[in-house]
Every structure is written in C-alpha cells, then in structure tokens.
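Most newcomers find our protein records easier to grasp once they have seen one. Sequence and backbone structure share a record, each on its own labelled line. To make this concrete, we reproduce a full record directly below:
***
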Amino acid sequence: MMMRKLCLFLAVLLWASPIMAAVHIIVESEGSTASIKYATDGEKVRAFALDITVNKGTIDAISDFVRGESTAQKPGYGIFPGNFARYITVDADTGEVTTWDPNEYTPIADPCDPGALGGLGTSGITVEMGALYYPTDDSSPNAPPNSGLLFKLTLSESATVTVALNEARGGIVLTDPDVAAVVDLKQATGVSVGGVVVSTDLLLPSHPDYVEWVAVGKPACWAYPRQCHGDADGLKEASKTGSYYVGLQDLNLLVAAWEIKEPPFGLGIAAIENGICADFAHDQDGSSKTGFFRVGITDLNILVANWLVKEAPDGPGVPGDCGGNLSP
C-alpha cells in the first residue's frame, strides 16, 4: 500500500512538472588551459556572447574553435559577428565566402567594439560565436549538437576563470529568438585553472557547485558522496533484499521541503530542518512573480532515478561521485 501511494505521489508531481529550457556554460581545467563548454536541455543555441575574466594574470591565447558554416562533418559555432566584416571576403558574383581561414578571424571581439573587454593579453575577453547551417530548423543534420566544446583559453598563470553573459552584445540567443534562454553559470564561476587549490572546506573551490554551496551556507550534507543523486541524509537503509542509499527517509525530507518559497514569499528552506539537503540539483526554481524555491521537480526526478537502487552485491549501487569530502 505504501508503495502504491508513493507511485501515485510521484506520478502526480511528474505529470504537473513544467518543461524548462536551460543552457549550461561549463569551465574545465586542463593544465594551464581552460576549456569552455556548453550543454543544453534540448534547445538549440544560435549564438553566444560571453565575457570571460581571470582573477589574476592574463588570457594569452584562444584555440580549438570552429571556423565557418556548421556541417555534419564539422559542426559548431564558426560565425564571429564582430570580426566577419573585418576578415571575411564574400564573392560578389557567387555570394560564397572566399575562405574562412584568415588567422585573424577569431571569436574574440575587438576591444574597441562597444561593450567588449580588453582582449588577449589582458584579464578579460569578449567572445562572440554564432552558427550558420542549412536547413535552418532544429532538426537539421548540420546544426551544432546540444553540448560540446566552444573553445580553449591559455592563461599566463594559475587563476580562477569566470564566464558571464555579455547582454549588450546579445548574451545567449536560441534558434527561436522569442524564447529567452535560462542560463546556468554555476559551473563557470570562479573555476580554478592551472594550479592545485588547497582547502579544508568539505567542498573544494574547484567543485562545480562550490559557489552555490557557499551561497546557501555551506551545508555539510552537500558533501555526502551520493547527495547529488538523491541521498539527503547520507545514510544507508536496509531491507531483506539488500541495502540502498536513496529511499523513504530521503523522500520524506524532500516532501517536507517541497516548493518552500524563499522570502519574501515564504519562510525559506532554512525553516525546514535539513531541508537544503533535499536540494539535489543545487539550484533554485520559480520566478520573481511567484517566488523562488530550492526543492522541486528537478530534485524529485533525481530521487526517482535512484529510488531503492540496491548496493553491491545485490545491485549496481548509486555512484559516490558527488565530489564531497564527507562520509557520515
């Protein structure tokens, strides 16, 4: 009976869930090089305008970007609006581009362009990248994929890298320009590149959710190895058929914290004991009109995906790869 009620509860919440599009920008460290990547929840991005800054030293080079039209053989964002007229020649008779390969044709906006940062050799650059492909619909075989590498940056020294939208030059534009992109920059904020950062924090500064973790008060539960997979309490539950980390105790905590609005619309997640532990996605949802909350359908979906997954030797177990330094 309990299982039937649980299934009904989950089904109702899943059926009522809104469909939300998101674009995630990700910075990954590769020695002295920072890889700037993107991923979407299914939407196609038409163009990016990003500001990239370092907290010390300079950005010295950009590499590994695509030039020209996006094709099935070479998909990507190879149209650079700020530099197109400067370096690209179009044949007046055929309308074809003579060549996409001038060395100077890069995604970095000229520092003299309105709203652009200082450029290579300084602590900040502005990057503009767009995609041109035919057919032009989202299902086109020549469209860029929903995730991938945009480019790599070489730094002069170890530093933290932060990516922000350059709204003045367009920000992020989806293929449907009437739909605003929901942009996630948590994995592109204060990311350490080129060195090892020593920290006694339960989450290291290099952790993709470190900034968000600090913002919500450094809850210890976010450092549980399986918390990001639905394990709110860090405890293993047992049954006659095996043991598991994601079960009824975690669901009860999620239900208690479900869509608790943050001030001024509600008391906030802090009013629920350990409520922040049910924020498995480490984000907030809602709107400025109706209020924001930390625990909702995204977190429920994570819990459902790992519900009663048995640990070895009875099952594959829930991965302990959430990156925390704490085991209860």
Observations:
- The mean pLDDT is 86.
- Residues 255 and 278 are 9 Å apart (CA to CA).
